[in-house]
Every structure is written in C-alpha cells, then in structure tokens.
Write a structure and sequence with these properties.
11 helices; about 50% helix; binds guanosine-5'-diphosphate; single chain; disordered N terminus; elongated; eight-stranded mixed beta sheet; alpha/beta; binds magnesium ion
Length: about 325
C-alpha cells in the first residue's frame, strides 16, 4: 500500500480548509435532497408501509432486512442493524419509534466520517486530486464539474488526461475543460498515463496552479496492469508535486451499480490509499444505501455526490442532510 499523502505533503489532510472551494448555493441542499428522495422511498417509505397496521414481528424484521439490502445497504451492515432491532423489538412498537431507531443506526454509522466528508482544499499550496474508478463510473464528468467549481472560486486549474486508453476519453475531458475554463494537458502521441500526468504536473508548476485534477483509466479486466499503471502514476505524482503540495486520491463510484461497484473498488483500495469516495448518479438511484456500506465496510468518507450530468450537478456530501432527506416524509 502506498502512502498517497506522501513525503511531500506538509501534513496528512483531514483538516477542512478554512477556504472552502465554493460557497454552497441555496440550490445545493435541495439537490442532495432530491437525489436522495428515491432511496428514501425505497427504504423508509417501504418500511413505514410495512408497519402501518401491524406490530414488529420477526417476519417483519426479515422484510426490513431485505428492504435495506435491496437499497444497497451491505449485507453485513443490514444484518447488524436488524440484529439490534430484534433485541429491541418490544420497545419499538410504532412506526415512529422504528424510524427513530433506524435514524439513530444510520447516524451512528456516518457520524465518525463527518469531518472527513468535506473535500479538503488548502489555500496557498498546490492541491492535487487523483481520480480513480472503473470505466463509466463518472470520473471524467466529475473532473469537469469539480474544475468548474474551483474555477468559479477563482482558482487556477490544470486537468491532466491520464486516461490514454480510449482516444474519445481525452476528447471528452477536453470538452469539459473548455466548458469549465481550465488548462488542459492531453496525451499527445503518448499512450503512457504516467507521462501525461508528468506533463500536467509540470504545467501546473509552471503556471503555479492551485488545483490539479488527474483523470485515469479504469480497466479492471486487467487488474495487474491497472495496479502497475497506478503505481507508476503515483511515483510520477510524488516526483512532480512541489514542496508543500497535497494529494487526495478520490474513488468515483456509480450509485446505480452499488454493491458491484464496491467489490471492484477493493482493487483500487489495495493499490492506492484512498482519501474518499465520490458517489455519482445518485439522481434517480434507489441504491443510495450504499453510502452506509462505504462508511461501515470500507471505512471511507463520501465526499461528494453527482446528481446529474450538468456542470453544476455536483454536491458536497453531508451526513446529517443525507439522513434527514432519507427520512423526509
Ligand atoms: N445521471 C447522472 N449521470 C452521470 C453522472 N455522472 C456521470 N454521469 C454519466 O455517466 C456516463 C459515464 O461518465 P464518464 O464521466 O464518462 O465516466 P468515466 O468512464 O468514469 O470517465 C456519462 O454518460 C455521464 O454523463 C451523474 O451524477 N448523474
Ligand atoms: Mg473517463
């Protein structure tokens, strides 16, 4: 396992920068809320429906477990919750008590990650964000959205097209860079992602960029190649970051593929020390329960969520807001 926060970074992050990348707009809150609504219906709505005119029996608890699993709360997490529910079923006579119990359970799972939920940006140094994840998860789109955010906050942004596997991937990223107004470093003639990332970091040093966003390819079919590639990338980043620069490695996960994506995520976790997760396509996904699994079983904070395909469709994750939205009637 590599230490992604490497020797060049001043200290391990975790402290949220006083200067957040962008002030939250009023729309941000409703964005997360709207995106979580489908998951809320698929968990809380269904459970309330179950309980309407009956008491909490073991059969009902089994059904609750199934509902949780279907919403992509992982098996271990769902079982742990329902085991505790079995122990306390006599105290939880009505739907409201049960909702409070679930709310408490979810809060307990997410609270330890509350401080880590925010993407760290440290003013005055170069902030490098390496973006990893399987193909189609939404890496390139996320980079475009994040670039847009930082640019709007007045930051100088360089984007490096480290996905050299598909030519179309580079073009797509360049379009996003143009839309956001970020500097773009493409692959040119090379097929070597490490070389592109080397160039991007050089460009970032030359123009004294505040932010460097590095895209990567996510071909899991060849796990060894992928790991080898990421190791090389890691080495180049370490060499290319100026003194004091800080690095975050963000895993992009597709909320609609839930548990499957998570299994694949292990590969990245084995290779890179991840600082957090970006959960994309939460809009319309009924599987937002995966956020609980990410915390409980992967010990990772969700930092941001994608709630659509547009430039502005990126929201900061906030555990309290997420839980409130889940339980909203
Ligand atoms: N609805 C929705 N679609 C998204 C979101 N993020 C990405 N996508 C779509 O998912 C597809 C794959 O995204 P892309 O960024 O190319 O994935 P990559 O292969 O990981 O770089 C594209 O069609 C995106 O428009 C999101 O938050 N919501
Ligand atoms: Mg891509």
């Amino acid at each position: 396992m590599f230490n992604w926060f490497g020797k060049k970074s001043a200290e391990r992050p975790g402290v949220v920068a006083p200067e957040a990348p962008v002030a939250e707009s009023a729309g941000a809150l409703s964005g997360l809320r709207a995106a979580v609504a489908t998951t809320g219906k698929s968990i809380v709505g269904k459970i309330v429906g179950l309980l309407k005119d009956s008491t909490l029996t073991d059969d009902l608890i089994d059904e609750i477990e199934e509902i949780l699993i279907r919403a992509d709360v992982g098996l271990d997490t769902a079982t742990a919750i329902t085991n505790r529910l079995r122990q306390r079923k006599h105290e939880l006579g009505n739907p409201e008590d049960l909702m409070n119990f679930l709310k408490q359970e979810f809060t307990q799972i997410l609270t330890p990650y509350e401080r880590a939920n925010q993407l760290v940006y440290q003013p005055g140094v170069m902030n490098v964000y390496l973006v990893v994840g399987v193909n189609g998860a939404g890496k390139t789109t996320f980079i475009g959205k994040l670039a847009n955010r930082f640019i709007k906050a007045g930051k100088k942004v360089v984007i490096g097209a480290g996905d050299t596997f598909r030519a179309a991937a580079e073009e797509q990223l360049e379009v996003w860079a143009q839309r956001a107004g970020a500097s773009f470093v493409g692959a040119g003639n090379t097929k070597d992602p490490a070389a592109v990332i080397f160039d991007a970091l050089k460009q970032a040093r030359d123009i004294q960029a505040d932010v460097v966003l590095l895209d990567t390819a996510g071909r899991l079919q060849n796990k060894l190649n992928l790991m080898e590639e990421l190791r090389k990338v890691r080495k180049v980043i370490d060499q290319g970051m100026p003194e004091g620069a800080r690095l975050e490695a963000l895993l992009v996960l597709d909320a609609t593929t839930g548990q499957n994506a998570l299994k694949q995520a292990r590969v990245f976790q084995e290779t890179v020390e991840l600082s957090g997760v970006v959960l994309t396509k939460l809009d319309g996904s009924a599987k937002g329960g995966v956020i609980l699994t990410i915390a409980q079983e992967y010990k990772l904070p969700v930092k941001m969520v994608g709630v659509g395909e547009g430039l502005e469709d990126l929201k900061d994750f906030n555990a309290r807001e997420f839980i409130d939205a889940l339980f909203e009637k």
